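Weekly structure sync, notes
Attendees: PL (lead), two postdocs, one rotation student
Agenda item 3: pending single-chain targets
PL asked that the sequence for the first pending target be pasted directly into the notes so everyone works from the same version. It is reproduced below exactly as submitted, 342 residues in total.
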Amino acid sequence: MKVDLFDFELPQELIALRPVRPRDAARLLVARGDASLEDRGVLDLPGLLEPGDLLVFNDTRVIPAQLEGRRGEAKIGATLHKRIDLRRWQAFIRNAKRLREGDTIAFGGDVEAVAEQRHADGSFTLGFAGDEPVEVMLERAGRMPLPPYIAGKRTTDERDREDYQTMFAREDGAVAAPTAALHFTPRLIEALEARGVKRETLTLHVGAGTFLPVKAEDTDDHAMHAEFGRIEADTAKRLNAAREAGGRLIAVGTTSLRLLESAADADGVIQPFAADTDIFITPGYRFRAADGLMTNFHLPKSTLMMLVSALMGRERMMTVYAHAIAERYRFYSYGDSSLLIP
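Predicted structure, written out during the meeting:
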């Protein structure tokens, strides 16, 4: 499909630069099949779901993966993208023309890394020096990797270390937050439990590739970056049991949905999973595991806009987004949310 089919005009003032407080005070646009759109709030979620439904959260934790350093006199920026092993990460590099294989980058705080290998997409493998855990080094030298549409408008600060982390975060490894879950609070979870809505967590370490624009003119020519995901055997068993009992699996965020679909077999049975996934969901895809999605509003011509269009239909999503813009919903990572039930 032509990428331009997923384009729309977004007023810049609708890009949220900070989340609302409290988190669960965000707005929620509800779209069910062809039914009329509903302007609700995130706190209304329990009443919008049925007892026995199951929310699927991503428990990945965002690490301070944005680094600024020097190779000699040259300024080098690095955004860690994907862990290779205990000491090596694949990273997108700013000012990569000044970096060669074998060069050492000094990031400050006694943190150094060697540019071991340049990849075809322009990224590098960085090998971090020393014996100290890389995660500890990043806490000292790194910044939270806010999306470009926020970082380009203001500086990252200490508030982001809390704001850009979900209440479920426990598995270090993401360089972008599963932002749909940013809206959840203990009181919302308590209300969902009282309603009889279940929840499970899985892990998908979101990479910086999620922010990359689709440069191809046709979706067939776009290559997705791989991300590591894991669903434990016991978790898969409970997910399948919930569906067999008549409950719906509602993915909280596109990352949870992508991992569910990666782990489901041809019959829709979710299997244990521990591998990379580069699944690219576009209109025409047959969903096997997810029955609905709670997600924030996405960038035009992005792979995530294509995903929600696959779930709901492209024309339907264009109507949803036109309504969100007209009603002044807040967009992107720190913005409002939507509940999409095909």
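Discussion points:
- The longest strand covers residues 74-83.
- The mean pLDDT is 95.
Action: rotation student to compare against the earlier draft before next sync.
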